[in-house]
Amino acid sequence: MTAWLHLFPGGAGRWNGFFAALRAFLEREGAGRTTFVSLTMLLHAASGILSDPLYGLLALLIGHADPVEIPAAARRMLAYGHSLGADTCLGILMGYKIVPGPCPGGEADRIGS
Fold this sequence. Notes:
By secondary structure, this protein is mainly alpha-helical. The protein has two domains: 1-49, no CATH class; 50-113, no CATH class. Helices cover 57% and strands 0% of the residues. The chain has helices at residues 11-29, 36-46, 52-61, 70-78, 84-98. Helix 1 runs antiparallel to helix 2 (36-46) and helix 3 (52-61) packs antiparallel against helix 4 (70-78). The longest helix is centred in the N-terminal third of the chain and has 19 residues, at 11-29.
C-alpha cells in the first residue's frame, strides 16, 4: 500500500514532485481560495517553515526530545489560533496515516495495515 511513499530509490523524486506541485497549486489558486494569512502559512509549510508550536510538536513526535512532553506540546498546538491548532493537529494525524515509518498510535492505526 505505501511502497510508492518510500524515499529511496525513486520515492525522493516522487515527494519532490508532490511538494513542487503543491506549492505551484498554492501559488496559482491559493489567493482566490483562502485569506492572505492562510495562504502565507500554507506556502511556508510547503517550504518547511513552521510555527513554533507546530515545530515543537513534530520534533517530539519524530523522537527529537522526551516523549513525556508530547501532551503539553499538543495542548500548545491545540490552543494556537481560534481553530487553527486543532485543524493542524488533525492534519498531523492525517499525515501519519499515509506516510511510512513509526506511527504514534501504532501500526494498527495506519491506513492499509
